[in-house]
UniProtKB/TrEMBL annotation:
It comes from the Eukaryota. GO terms for cellular component: cytosol; nucleus; perinuclear region of cytoplasm. Residues 536-555 are annotated as: Disordered. PANTHER family: NACHT DOMAIN-CONTAINING PROTEIN, RAN GTPASE-ACTIVATING PROTEIN 1. This is RNI-like protein. One of its GO terms (molecular function) is small GTPase binding. The lineage of its organism: Eukaryota, Fungi, Fungi incertae sedis, Mucoromycota, Glomeromycotina. It comes from Rhizophagus irregularis (strain DAOM 181602 / DAOM 197198 / MUCL 43194) (Arbuscular mycorrhizal fungus). Transmembrane segments: none annotated. One of its GO terms (biological process) is nucleocytoplasmic transport.
């Protein structure tokens, strides 16, 4: 059956019979094949180099590579614990691989596969797993225990995702033991399991000791009011947790009350989700009382809690005393039921008189025309709200008219969503298009164009939004250029050249005393341009001795600060070639440039301070995840 290889061909590889040796394979000719004829001319004597030891090395390499690929793909059923041990040994003394993310979703991992995974996690310094995602695997009992036990001494895993399994209070106990010992895990996702109040108690006790976990998701479990109390007790002690998702846990008013009370003392939590918890208006009042005291929470999600207008009124009034809340989600809360406008009125007063929040979601509330009028009555004064979502809010033509009028004067809003408000009709769309011809800030509008003439109106709106986007970009570029010029031109030594004014309200430079300025008057001449520069923030002029030393050292260099101040002012002001900034904004930029404390600050910090607000130039202006993203338990990111 088999041809025995000639001794001249070398030792047979691995001692196994083969039909042809490697050398014979390369020498074998096939008629009519030009490639084979060429190959026969340039023969490579491979068997000369591949001994038994060489073949063993190649075979071992291929085997270990295959094991590694099975680990990456999650096909753990095709390898054994010994395979994993051999792979780990092979990494000794060489550059270690990084299994940074092990994403084993929807694999229905068996107990044996979990044991294989645990061996990898125990060799943490070699495998270096940081992100462990085990969602939708029907894990429970010993399968979960063997994984959590292996993590007790692990020092690399930072994200642990066990969402959508069959975890109960028993598995929560194992997790509690882990969190008491492990201080490296930063994010824990346990959404869509069966953890009850006892499980909440185990996790809460562990987090009273643990100082590493920053994000915890317990969405869609069975905590109930008692579980809410355990979580609240933990929040009073824990000073590291920043994000917690407790949605759909039937906490009811009692659980919401306890958690709200904990916010009065908690100083670390920034994001809280309490959606679908039967809160009602009374629960909203507990939450509102805490918001008057809490000054760390920035994100609040309470959709589908039936808080009605009274609940919105409580929260809006409390936010008048709050200065940190940025995002609030009030979707589907029966606001505006029976034509009630009390909640909308309170929200309108908040937006008119306060600088928070930056984003509001009011989708699927029957706001109506009258409620819309109340919200936007004083909205033209608001400069801080970036996004408002009013999808499916029963808004008609009168409500759209109120929105359009406010948009003509508003200078801060970046995005507005009015989807599924069919009563606005063609005239409503046209009103918005006309208003946007005057608005210079809005960059995103979501509308339903369900009419024949939609194309011309859509083009008009898109043209305005594009113009606003380019204008904002021009503002930011101009502000940065003025900052750079101010850093170069202005210096504390300039203070010696500043004229002294006897009246702080009058301009410190007069066109009459500056003949050089007569051909082109500075646009800032009518503002007290130099007043901010004489503030204590500028260091006093150096002594004459030090000054002479410095001047002697720089005698061969051009010193911009020796230019007449009028010329410096011209250079700075005329950098705004398209006049996109106001005089006050340029003054703020110059003041910013003159402070030593601002050196090394980020672009975002500079633009926020100098222009009072910073809106990132991005096409994605959503300020929270969409509903579909929220369903993806492991990808929700609300901080």
């Amino acid at each position: 059956m088999f041809k025995k290889r000639s001794s001249s061909m070398g030792v047979s590889s691995l001692g196994l019979p083969r039909t042809l040796s490697l050398q014979e394979t390369f020498h074998k000719k096939r008629k009519g094949s030009w490639a084979n004829r060429l190959q026969s001319i340039t023969t490579i004597p491979m068997d000369k180099y591949l001994t038994n030891e060489g073949h063993q090395l190649v075979s071992s390499y291929l085997r270990l590579t295959q094991i590694q690929n099975h680990i990456i793909k999650g096909t753990l059923h095709k390898i054994t614990e010994k395979d994993v041990d051999d792979l780990i040994k092979s990494y000794d003394g060489v550059a270690t691989p990084v299994f940074e993310t092990l994403s084993y979703l929807d694999l229905n991992l068996s107990y044996n596969e979990c044991k294989i995974l645990s061996r990898l996690l125990k060799a943490d310094k070699i495998t270096n797993v940081r992100n462990l995602r085990l969602g939708r695997n029907h894990l429970f009992g010993s399968s979960v225990k063997v994984i959590l036990d292996s993590l007790q001494k692990n020092t690399t895993v930072e994200i642990l995702d066990l969402s959508c399994n069959h975890l109960t209070d028993n598995e929560a106990k194992y997790l509690g033991k882990l969190l008491k010992k492990n201080n490296n895990i930063k994010q824990v996702y346990l959404a869509f399991n069966r953890i009850g109040s006892d499980g909440a108690k185990s996790i809460s006790k562990a987090l009273m000791i643990n100082n590493s976990v920053e994000r915890l998701s317990l969405e869609s479990n069975q905590l109930n009011a008692i579980g809410g109390k355990h979580i609240a007790d933990m929040l009073k002690v824990n000073n590291n947790l920043k994000y917690i998702h407790l949605g759909s846990n039937n906490l009811q008013r009692e659980g919401v009350r306890d958690i709200s009370d904990s916010l009065k003392t908690n100083v670390s939590l920034t994001s809280l989700s309490l959606d679908i918890n039967n809160m009602s208006a009374e629960g909203a009042k507990y939450l509102a009382d805490s918001l008057e005291i809490n000054q760390t929470l920035t994100h609040l999600y309470i959709p589908r809690n039936n808080i009605e207008d009274d609940g919105l009124k409580y929260i809006s009034n409390s936010l008048l005393k709050n200065s940190v809340l940025i995002y609030i989600d009030l979707e589907f809360n029966s606001i505006g039921t029976n034509e009630n406008i009390e909640g909308s009125k309170a929200l309108g007063e908040l937006l008119e008189n306060h600088n928070i929040p930056r984003a509001i979601n009011l989708s699927q509330n029957t706001i109506g025309n009258e409620g819309c009028k109340e919200i936007f009555k004083g909205f033209h004064k608001n400069t801080s709200l970036e996004s408002i979502i009013l999808s499916q809010c029963s808004i008609g033509l009168d409500g759209i008219e109120a929105i359009a009028e406010s948009l003509r004067l508003n200078i801060g809003l970046q995005n507005i969503s009015l989807n599924k408000n069919s009563n606005m009709g063609v005239d409503g769309h046209l009103m918005l298009a006309n208003a946007l011809e005057f608005n210079t800030s809005l960059k995103g509008v979501q509308l339903d164009y369900n009419f024949a003439e939609w194309e011309s109106i859509s083009n008009s709106i898109q043209k305005s939004l594009t113009r606003n986007h380019l204008l904002q970009k021009e503002k930011y570029n101009t502000a940065c250029n003025i900052l750079k010029a101010s850093r170069i031109l202005l210096n504390p030594i300039l203070q010696q050249q500043l004229p002294i004014s006897s009246c702080s309200t009058s301009p410190l430079i007069s066109p009459i005393t500056s003949p050089m300025m007569s051909p082109m008057m500075s646009p800032l001449m009518n503002t007290p341009f130099l007043a901010p520069l004489t503030s204590p923030l500028i260091s006093p002029p150096p002594s004459p001795k030090r000054q002479s030393i410095k001047q002697s050292k720089k005698s061969k260099k051009k010193i911009f600060t020796k230019l007449p101040f009028e010329i410096q002012e011209h250079i700075i002001s005329y950098l705004d070639t398209k006049h996109v900034l106001t005089g006050d904004q340029i003054l703020d930029i110059v003041n910013y440039a003159m402070k030593k404390s601002t050196l090394g600050s980020t672009k975002e910090q500079f633009l926020t301070k100098a222009l009072t607000a910073y809106y990132p130039l991005t096409s994605d202006i959503r300020l929270w995840p969409t509903e579909s993203t929220d369903r993806e338990f492991s990808s929700s990111d609300r901080i």
